[in-house]
Amino acid sequence: MTASRDAVIVVDASMLRRTIAATAVGNMMEWFDFGIFSYLAVPLGQVFFPTASGPVQLISTFATFSAAFVVRPLGGFFFGPLGDRIGRKRVLATTIIMMAVGTFCIGLVPGYATIGIGAPLLLLLARLVQGFSTGGEYGSAMTFIAEHAPDRRRGYLTSWLEFGTLAGIVLGALLVAALTATLSHRELISWGWRIPFLVTAPLGLVGLYLRLRLAETPVFERLERASVRRPGVRAEFRRIFVQERRSLLVCVGLVLAWNVSSYMLPAYLPSYLSADVGIPSTTALMVVVAALAVLMVLVPFVGRLSDRIGRKPILTSGCLLLAVGGIPAFLLIRTGALHWVFPGCLLVGLMLLCFESAGPATLPALFPTEIRAGALSVAFNLGVSLFGGTTPLIAQALVHATGNLLVPGFYLAAAGLVGAVAVLFTPETAGKPLPGSAPAVTDRAEGEILGARRPADPSDDR
Asked: I want to staple 52 with a disulfide (CB 3.0 to 4.6 A). Which of 56, 169, 336, 360 is the partner?
């Protein structure tokens, strides 16, 4: 993957492109698997919770969706430190297998009419497998790409991870929309809902093949060659929660703002538009897909912008949009008129765009190499589980309890305020080496310049 000269890592461009592409495609597979559950929330509620009323059915389905986030921290606690010991690549290969198995099993679970209470229990078990897998996936994937990327292009290159995420969500939504449009309601409830879950088996094999062909990150390889003594599991957790507690809290705050907007748009809005605003389900889904498609186009450009102007200005913009734009966005959305609903969804998407483009380069730079995968996985999944993944459940429960369709907008605004505080304490890392890592450059000429300016320092590999 790389060649090193003194304390500088020179990145092989062709291998870098393959690494970025394979990681993004693997992440697309993961989030296709994880996202289709939320798009099928209404039919899943009818299949697995038929005795409940309509609103309670939806809340029950979102509760099962949120259950995966209960075990996400456990997945992060397990896979993150494991990635600091056996390597990021092996963990990513394992998580994609687990996600494919968990998702495929959902497609095989009999409905409530067949096995009664066993049906939602089996559904819950499969969701827990998904959650445990995802707990190790995202922090490891961010670490993997960030450690491969040259310092001056890290924002742009890591943003392709989010391109993969958005692509997976969009593909899942398009498949569900196609099924909803072509099948009758009875067919969808009877067997059609299973199709998106069952197609994950071949997708998972493709993702696994791509990930097994990747090289380990040069940063981790240097750590291995230097035989740097790394902390044991207990010592690593002690360091994460004690020595790195400020970075941990900053990361959780950023993840809160990021993921409240993330799960609000693709996971909650399709059901909100259908069940509460009264837009036909297929139309609601396509409106959200259109907003996500815009984000897919923009995210690499804004990622590149973060390399030029810094991560903090973009993250700050995202927090301000959440704080001042959350309520106006839902004022537009609740009208039910598509010429207002789409701009409202797009406004929520622009909030998300700021985090999707700058977040993957910002969060790995909060922690040093020897504990990066573990610390990032722990912090990210705590933030997602406590705040992000529960967004559909909390938002729908509050709407049901209050009858106020603007409640999700207030939720976005609160997330923006928390995120703004976290950004204040976030160091600017654009163009700088990752903590504990040697500078990474795109060619030997740049490496020669850096090498001349800065002699090799043993601390680079600590």
From this structure: 56
CB count, 10 Å around CB of 17?
Answer: 12
Q: Torsion over CA of 243, 247, 252 and 258, rounded to 10 degrees?
A: -160
Q: Return the SS3 of 216.
A: coil
Report, as an integer, the average pLDDT of 18-41.
79
- Considering only CA atoms, which of 422, 130, 374 is closest in space to residue 256? 422
Instruction: Classify domain 12-217+236-432 at the CATH topology level.
Output: Growth Hormone; Chain: A; (1.20.1250)
Q: In this prediction, what percent of the chain has a pLDDT beyond 70?
A: 92
The half-sphere exposure of 423 on its side-chain side, counting CA atoms within 13 A, is 23
- 304's enclosing H/E stretch is helix 281-309
User: Which range, 162-166, 312-316, 430-434, is most confident?
Assistant: 312-316
β partners of residue 4: 9
Burial of 53 (0-12, 13-18, 19+ CB in 10 A): exposed
CA distance 174 to 39: 10
Helix axes 338-362, 281-309, angle to 10 degrees: 40
Helix (H) or strand (E) holding 72: helix 54-86
User: What DSSP character marks residue 11?
Assistant: E
pLDDT digits 0-9 by tens, 354-375: 999 999 999 999 999 889 999 9
Cβ pair 103, 190 in contact under 8 A: no
Where exactly are the structural domains of the chain? 12-217+236-432
The pLDDT assigned to 4 comes to 41
What mean pLDDT comes out for the span 282-296?
A: 91
Nearest to 424 by CA among 253, 305, 238: 253
Confidence category of residue 345, pLDDT binned at 50, 70, 90: very high
Residue 422 buriedness (CB in 10 A; 0-12 / 13-18 / 19+)? buried
Say how many CA atoms lie within 13 Å of 358 toward its Cβ. Answer: 33
Sheet with 440-441, edge to edge strand ranges: 2-5, 8-11, 440-441
